[in-house]
Design a protein that fits this description.
Layout (H helix, E strand, L loop, with lengths): L2 H30 L29 H18 L11 H16 L2 E17 L3 E16 L10 E14 L2 E11 L4
Antiparallel strand pairs: 1-2, 2-3, 3-4
């Protein structure tokens, strides 16, 4: 065989290999892209999306503090780390959050939750204390801390909640939460 005869098959092989490599690269990039809880259908296993840190907390008003608390607690559940939201709550509330995260950790799972909607109102407020009531709708699912794969389907719950806050030098902090699930109508 002459050199020209060998070059043609080599070009074809290189073209095919280039095509396969490009397809693998495109598939790999697509597979590594961010996923939301809704991008994995019910009953399907899937990788947990990368965590997204919330906006800096806002403790200027009781309602803003409640929203910041919820965002940062959700992030701490996703990260399975109770130290993350400490700036939004008192040490008394931290005990409750830490207990729940530690329970999940002993079971090898984390929680990914999303606040779908919230309606808040200030029930009372004075210079050092406030009470905020809320009606909340959440979606959530558990995932394995080891494999970062979902363990459960997406679930949805709605709650009526009462947040008791105290005013500290840093701003309003959540001190206690009382919540009850709303029954489906």
């Amino acid at each position: 065989m002459s050199g020209a005869e060998r070059t043609v098959p080599a070009r074809i092989v290189l073209a095919v290999l280039s095509g396969v490599s490009c397809a693998a690269l495109v598939f790999g990039v697509a597979a590594c892209g961010p996923r939301t809880a809704d991008s994995v259908g019910p009953g399907e296993a899937g990788a947990v999306a990368d965590p997204v840190e919330p906006a800096p907390w806002d403790l200027a008003t009781p309602e803003a503090a409640v929203r910041s608390y919820l965002e940062w607690v959700s992030f701490s559940y996703r990260m399975a780390n109770s130290e993350i939201p400490t700036a939004t709550m008192t040490p008394a509330e931290l005990v409750r959050i830490d207990a729940y995260i530690q329970l999940n950790r002993t079971e090898g799972k984390g929680l990914e939750q999303t606040l779908e909607s919230i309606e808040t109102s200030v029930a009372s407020e004075d210079a050092t204390n406030a009470v905020v009531t809320a009606r909340e709708a959440w979606s959530y699912r558990y995932f394995s801390l080891e494999s970062l794969e979902y363990l459960t389907d997406i679930a949805r719950e709605s709650y009526e909640a009462t947040y008791t806050l105290v005013r500290e030098p840093a701003g309003w902090l959540v001190d206690r939460v009382e919540a009850s699930a709303l029954t489906a109508e």
